[in-house]
Design goal:
This protein is an alpha/beta fold and 282 residues long. It is built from 10 helices and 9 strands. Helix content is 37%, strand content 14%. A 7-stranded parallel β-sheet has the order 3-4-5-6-7-8-9. It has a two-stranded antiparallel sheet with strand order 1-2. GO terms for molecular function: oxidoreductase activity.
């Protein structure tokens, strides 16, 4: 495939990032895989997938350490996203969790810091902590993850809640519920949506229609599934791989030019929602 540029997404604060990044869920859990994980992330950075998503939850901090090794000496080339556990999301707890993440990353700032999902701490408290971290330069912006439309509306009502920069949710061909209300809600407000598990952890890749259409473009089912998400306005896609060759394969998805007829065929195979569905999570 030709080396087409990766489309970009602009956050509310004006920061521009590639719409195709890299995930790290399940990295940092096995020392025997660390070298491959680091090399895969480095290869992705070289290919322009400079947004890297991680969390204190992944590998109990191990994924952040993997990211830290992958970006050593090239911190300014990448855009780091990390997340705080909901049970750490008190005023002081959020700040302390961020400090620990920074230490594991070997970095002086996290570009986008997310609340991983809603917990028992009031949003007012977590947002206040995010704003303190932002004012101190330890984070560039903050956002949320696994927030449904009503959660987002509540967030916008708290002090400084309108500063939310992104919402990361489960979104792929087999999980299209957000298209009914949450995705357009975010699009209308200029809040990017980050799509995690974009190939449903591989579970959709054996679907016969996905395979049939992908073959017509000499592409893989994974590339077609990623291209589907990149077609959506304001969506950032974060596939995870520990294989440098697969990272290059993911990168090539941006060069696919799918016909309207084939998009329609995918809609038949993976129907969009016709009514509100509860937000799905993994």
């Amino acid at each position: 495939m030709q080396d087409d540029p990766i489309p970009s997404i602009t956050f509310p604060n004006g920061t521009e990032v590639p719409a195709l990044g890299q995930g790290t869920w399940a990295m940092g859990e096995d020392a025997g895989h660390a070298s491959a994980e680091i090399e895969s992330l480095k290869a992705g950075i070289d290919l322009g997938m400079t947004l890297i998503d991680t969390a204190e939850m992944y590998g109990d901090g191990g994924a952040e350490e993997i990211v830290g090794q992958a970006i050593r000496g090239r911190r300014d080339e990448v855009f780091i996203v990390s997340k705080v556990y909901p049970w750490n999301a008190s005023l002081n707890g959020t700040i302390e969790a961020c400090e620990r993440s920074l230490e594991r990353l070997g970095a002086d700032r996290i570009d986008l810091y997310l609340l991983h999902w809603r917990g028992n701490y009031p949003l007012t408290e977590t947002v206040a902590a995010f704003e303190i971290l932002k004012a101190s330069g330890k984070i560039g912006a903050w956002g949320v993850s696994n927030f449904d439309t009503d959660d987002m509306e509540e967030l916008l009502r708290v002090p400084d809640g309108t500063n939310v920069a992104a919402n990361q949710v489960l979104y792929n061909l087999s999980r299209r519920g957000i298209e009914f209300d949450l995705l357009p809600w975010c699009q209308n407000r200029g809040i990017p949506v980050m799509a995690y598990s974009p190939i449903e952890q591989g579970n959709i890749l054996h679907h016969p229609e996905l395979i049939r259409i992908a073959k017509a473009y000499q592409a893989t089912p994974a590339q077609l599934a990623l291209a589907f998400l990149l077609e959506r306005d304001g969506v950032i896609v974060i596939p995870k791989t520990s294989n440098a060759e697969r990272a290059a394969e993911n990168r090539d998805c941006v060069s696919l030019d799918i016909t309207d007829d084939d998009w329609d065929a995918l809609d038949v195979a993976f129907p969009p929602p016709t009514k509100k569905k509860p937000l799905e999570m993994l």
